[in-house]
Amino acid sequence: VLIEEADDYYFPPVTGTYLRLTRFATSFVALFLTPVYLLMMQNPGHVPEWLSFSLVADEVNVPLVLQFIILEFAIDGLRLASINTPTMLSTPLSVIAAIVLGDYAVQSGWFNSEVMLYMAFVALANYSQASFEMSYALKFMRVLLMVLTALAKQFPLLMSRLWNGSDKLKPGDTIESVINQGTLGIGFIGLAECLVALVGKHHGEDEEAQALGLRIVSHMRSRANEYSEKYEHNFSVLATPAEGLSGKFTKADRKTFGVLPGITDKIYYTNSNHVPVYYKCSPRHKAKVEAPYHELTRGGHIFYVEIDGDATHNPEAISDIVDLMDKYNIGYGSVNHNRNRCMSCGYEDAQENLDECPLCGSKAIDKLQRITGYLVGTTDRWNNAKLAELNDRVVHK
After folding, report:
1. For residue 191, which of 290, 105, 69, 307 has the smallest C-alpha distance?
2. Structure confidence by residue, pLDDT tens digits, 91-123
3. pLDDT at 390
4. Within the chain, which residues score under 70 in pLDDT?
């Protein structure tokens, strides 16, 4: 993918080979130039004499890693600006902006000229990629490499309080050895919609779809395990609700593919590996379908059951659901039910759509709801996608 394009095969062999080698070289530069340069600046004593001219000679006012990361955002900003500029003006304005802003940034002391130069090389190498997605994949990996080479002295709070073993690091050590105190999570949403696109049904209604869903998430888990062994970091698969992305992804896909029944016909994607919230089934069936994914998503997951009525007066129902969780080895579960409280007089009940207190007439009603894995007292700050999901939820009987 990095070195080949279909068009290469329309050229003579020598020309096609040259283009592939050039593309490989630019990909290598796009990925490694700035992280390697940052590493050289952090360890100038190990830099060969014949490369000493490349080191920053002027005073560094802003840490180099921050200069590189700021410029990563700035380049994308210029790219977006050029897209939204009339065609006849986009090229000259982009050149003028790059020259003026670059020169001023160096003179003001915010950036060093060497940083600007190497980021220019990286930007050109990134633009040489035929695939837009590949160029951003290289960009994200490059930023990660720069973070991993950041100095411990640039993170005094984390180094002194939050990361175990950080107290043993010297000011010039990299942070790679201590970030294993946390988890590098790989999340996913919309398995149900994915399966509808592939086989026509989601995993809650079809055993073939369920088998395919488990194969997909098992593959993700296997790759995460491979990354853990290869890079010696704690990679894991996370069954994420992605409160913000669930709506953004659907909007983007609807714009590209149109409205597809069971896939993009709603303004949200289903939470991770859950069956769709509008799918009517029993708590037992829901547990049976979703439980196998918990073993595969150890970075985080949740199983929940929607019940009606006042759960505080129905302990047997809660007990039955807890037994289900135990039987199917569910890692984290919850029971969703309505709970209203009048903020004026303290009256509580479990009615649906309660807008006025029946006791004192107050409209100050606090409605306890679960957006994903946590309870919230109001839906005022929920985005439209999650509000639509909430309205689509059905009781599991």
Report:
1. 290
2. 554 554 555 566 666 666 777 777 778 788 788
3. 78
4. 1-9, 45, 57-60, 82-108, 130-132, 150-163, 171-172, 181, 243-244, 309-312, 369-382
DSSP state string for 26-51: HHHHHHHHHHHHHHHHH-GGGS-GGG
Residue pointed to by tokens 């100050």? 364
CA dihedral 158, 163, 168, 169 (to 10 degrees): -50
Burial class of residue 229 in the structure, from the number of CB atoms within 10 Å of its CB (0-12 exposed, 13-18 middle, 19+ buried):
exposed
Q: Give bridge partners of residue 369 from the DSSP assignment.
A: 376
**Count helices and strands in the chain by DSSP H and E runs:** 12, 8
Q: What is the pLDDT of residue 84?
A: 65
- 3 state SS of 372: coil
DSSP 143-211: HHHHHHT-BGGG-HHIIIIISTTGGG--TTSBSTTTGGGS-EEEEE--HHHHHHHHHSS-TTT-HHHHH
151 DSSP β-pair partners: 174
359, 338 contact by CB (below 8 A)? no
Here the tokens at position 360 are 């004192």
Percent of the chain at pLDDT > 70 equals 77
How far CA 244 is from CA of 186, 189, 271, 371, in Å, comes to: 16, 11, 11, 12
Going from the C-alpha of 254 to that of each of 191, 250, 251, 386, 393, the distances in angstroms are 17, 6, 5, 17, 22
Specify the pLDDT at position 1. 47
* 336 phi and psi angles, rounded to 5 deg: -100, 130
